[in-house]
Amino acid sequence: MPSIDRLPALPTFPNALPELAQKPQETGSASFGDTFKSFISDVNQMQTTAADKELKFATGQIKDVHEVMAASEEAGLSLSMLIEVRNKLLDGYKELIHIQV
Q1: Residues 46, 52, 57, 61: is their CA dihedral positive or negative?
Q2: What would the pLDDT profile of 51-89 be if each residue is shown by its tens digit?
Q3: 46 with 81: CB under 8 angstroms?
Q4: Can you give the pTM of this predicted structure?
Q5: Which of 29, 43, 62, 77 has its CA 20 to 30 A from that of 14?
Q6: Residue ranges of domains in the chain
Q7: Residue 34: its H or E element
Q8: Cα angle value 42/48/54 (rounded, 5°)
Q9: Are 89 and 97 in contact (CB under 8 A)?
Q10: CA–CA distance, 46 with 49 (Å, rounded to integer)
């Protein structure tokens, strides 16, 4: 069984993982801002689709009320989630503002 003094020493923080510190960011990864913009765009598309299906149902082009209700609920839930994410981001921002350096 190896003794403790035979174990190699751990590197210090500045030299711990130099390959990770110097590794360029992958070109395929999206930033948080891009991801959030995409999410907003998706929510907007769901709202537009739901409104379109409601209009088609009202004019008789769609007969299935379940399809219309599912699209409306999906759009409503995605909007609620977007609002909650926005609220959490604002809470985090307000908390950062109050941090004294």
Answers
A1: negative
A2: 999 999 999 999 999 999 999 999 999 999 999 999 999
A3: no
A4: 0.64
A5: 29
A6: 31-101
A7: helix 32-58
A8: 135
A9: no
A10: 5
